[in-house]
Amino acid sequence: MTHRSLLGWLYRLMFLAAILIALVLFLVLPVAGSFLITNSHFHFPERGPTTPEAVGISVLPAEFVSQDGIPLRGWWIPGDRSMPVIIFVHGLNRSRLEMLERGADASRRGYGVLLFDLRNHGESGRAYTTIGVFESRDVCAASGFVKSKAVERQQILWGVSMGASSAILAAKQCPGFSAIISDSSFLSFRETVDHHLRLILRLPAFPVANLIVAITSYRMHFDPDDGDVAAAVHSMKTPILFIAGGRDRRMPPALAEKMFKESPSVVKELLIIPTARHGEAFATDRTTYLNSVYGFLERVRDNAVPK
């Protein structure tokens, strides 16, 4: 084989390698990433109590339907009629059980409680996961359920991770909530895809993250900006308590700090649990966590600011 023919084969191999790399970067990874977001049925094992009886509460079954027809299931506790109702919203790949201990504590304080499973989670109907965009519809449906049971009572949203983001997005879509507890929310659909791609795969955001967002929004027929949580915060005066874990690499404290600074609400607070990882602020320092939440809700009642 001559030197010239050897170079020819080398160029061909380099050309094929470039095509392969381009296919992986521009097609395989973006498509796989999009389907991983929307079609995953993975569920984290629960580490705490798994039944209402285990936390000493009695519940009633709750069933309602999201605006796009997804059946949703949960547990309803009426509580004291003079107290607000708290709607608890769990995170990605979890279920209502993630919020069970918090719900039980709220119930013992007299609050009405709704614990429910978001679409594609727990006992609720199968659907595509959209990291908050369509899940916000589920939160609005939960609010409608509460109104049917306790029409005159104030409603509070309390969410963790994707649940916190879904709660904030819902408060923009179906306003009227007296307060939001936002534990470990991300800034936006775009930002969290970008951040997790860099965090998990160590890849630059461009072009893979951009393509994942574009492919997912095309497949699901939504505008990615509908998942802009930070913009929703900026547009509402609802009192919000932002919570973050100091060791959270997925939704670092800087995200909560940014939204706290940009929130126009008269009543807003920021709680950072220094040693907590993602979504683990409650488990890491339960006393500080709960004292901060209920102290905040007392200040909300005292100020009675417009929503």
Structure commentary:
With 307 residues, the chain is an alpha/beta fold. The chain folds into two domains: 1-39 and 189-224, no CATH class; 48-187 and 228-303, Rossmann fold (3-Layer(aba) Sandwich), CATH 3.40.50.1820. It has ten helices and eight strands. An eight-stranded mixed beta sheet has the order 1-2-4-3-5-6-7-8, sandwiched between helices. β7 (240-245), α8 (253-262) and β8 (268-273) form a beta-alpha-beta unit. The radius of gyration is 22 Å and the shape is elongated.
Summed up:
By secondary structure, the chain is of the alpha/beta class.
Largest sheet: 8 strands, mixed
Strand order of the largest sheet: 1-2-4-3-5-6-7-8
- Low-confidence runs (pLDDT<50, min 5 residues)? none
- Number of separate helices: 10
Q: Per CATH, what is the topology of the largest domain?
A: Rossmann fold
Structural class: alpha/beta
Q: Radius of gyration, Cα only, in angstroms?
A: 22 Å
Question: What labels describe this entry?
Answer:
307 residues, Rossmann fold, 8 strands, alpha/beta, 10 helices, elongated
Show the helix and strand layout.
Layout: H1 3-39, E1 60-65, E2 71-77, E3 85-89, H2 100-108, E4 112-116, H3 135-149, E5 155-160, H4 162-173, E6 179-183, H5 189-201, H6 208-220, H7 229-235, E7 240-245, H8 253-262, E8 268-273, H9 281-284, H10 286-303
Parallel strand pairs: 3-4, 3-5, 5-6, 6-7, 7-8
Antiparallel strand pairs: 1-2, 2-4
Helix pairs in contact: 1-6, 3-4, 4-7, 5-6
